[in-house]
Amino acid sequence: MDYNDQLKTLSECIFALESSSTTDLEEILESGSLANVQVYKNRLIETVSRVLRVHYPATYLRANDVHFKRLCVSFIVDIGITTYNIDDLARRFSSFLEETVGDHEDELLVQLAKIDQLWSFASLDGISEVTVLSGTLYIWQDIIANQPSNRSFDPSKFETIELAEVAGEPVLRLISSI
Amino acid sequence: MALQFPHIDYILKERPKVPWFEIDIDRFVDDGIHHAQLKKLRAHYPIVFHCRSLNLGGVDKFPGQQIIMYKSLIDLYEPEWFSDHLCWTSFNGHFHHDLLPVPRTTEGLINLTQRIDFLQEFFDRSLVIQNISSYIEFDGADFSEVEFIKEVQRRSGCKLLLDISSVLIDSKNKNRDPNDFFAEYPIEKAVYGRLSGGAFVKDLIMDSRSNSVNEMDIQMYQSIWDSGVKLPVALTRSADIPPFKDLEDERQKIEGCISGLQ
Prior knowledge:
The structure holds two protein chains of two kinds.
Chain A: H1 3-15, H2 37-55, H3 57-63, H4 65-79, H5 86-90, H6 93-99, H7 101-104, H8 107-125, E1 129-134, H9 136-144, E2 154-166, E3 169-177
Antiparallel strand pairs in A: 1-2, 2-3
Chain B: H1 8-14, E1 21-24, H2 33-44, E2 47-50, H3 64-77, E3 82-85, E4 88-91, E5 94-100, H4 106-123, E6 128-130, H5 145-156, E7 159-163, H6 164-173, H7 178-184, E8 190-195, E9 197-201, E10 204-211, H8 215-226, E11 233-235, H9 244-258
Parallel strand pairs in B: 1-2, 2-3, 3-6, 6-7, 7-8, 8-11
Antiparallel strand pairs in B: 4-5, 9-10
């Protein structure tokens, strides 16, 4: 196997995060190394997960650590990491959750991620508002404040939230409900 | 010392007597306030540039915009050295965000040397190449790790960065004698070294740079120093970053060891 194919084989095996097959790897790696490919898979998941946790704090807290990592794995496998900048990649996490809501069946997670994205990226991306299901903002605020929330969202209504600045500090506020 | 973002304000205010800083240039490719901070820091300290994104052992084309940006940063900040790792980091446009080992074959050697040659010409300066630790070994190697490094250096004329801690971690994980590496390593081509602390995960030591430097690493550095090779080292912590004062204490402890103060 030539150099290019050696790199290709290892790269594809690492990105196939959930596959434990070592058949292709057996052609290129010493037998004692095969199990350690998992180290690179774990580190990739941890690297992406760490960045996503920072940008999607309420989504992470709502999902819990194990579920969030599962979502990260699906995210990596689904979209591929085609940018050196993981912050850029993180911008796509919200739309990924929305597109795959049928798989994880957690509509609140989708709504929280939209607000997280607004909070994390609005000032960089020049976006100042987002529309979510009614009630999501209060749930988001409870989660961020680490308070138990017994609120629920209303899937039949929408609210638009903006990122504003009050006394020099960024704040999220409700600007309209439909 | 490897510069960490959380420490910049403190360093600019207190001006600690750190001999020089290593700058992770991958974090300066975007515009922002951190450039104003780096300019201030540069006015008071010598710096070297370090990165992990050149994908030296890879086969993808170098991204034009990125290396043009590096060139402009080099021209702007005039670092003493510019280093990256002997590894590959992406394939077919997919980024691993990790340092993957290069198959040590003749084909791999030619590929690596050609890419280093290209960048050295583009940047109009010698690149500095750092050894890495890894958790896997490719079959069919034509060279040992140190033979490979020597040959890359000889063919390209690049400089070397000796990551002492990576050698020790790699040796431990692969049940090898690190002295075999150090005995053969072309230390006269190294322009600086690196010390950092790893972390145990199951039965492997991860090269995580998340802990204080192991005593064994300091002893190895001391023995290199005592052999007459006055190699400066960068103390590196890139995860679980403590307050600057703690790192500075650690740096002074290492400095004390080699100057016989402790």
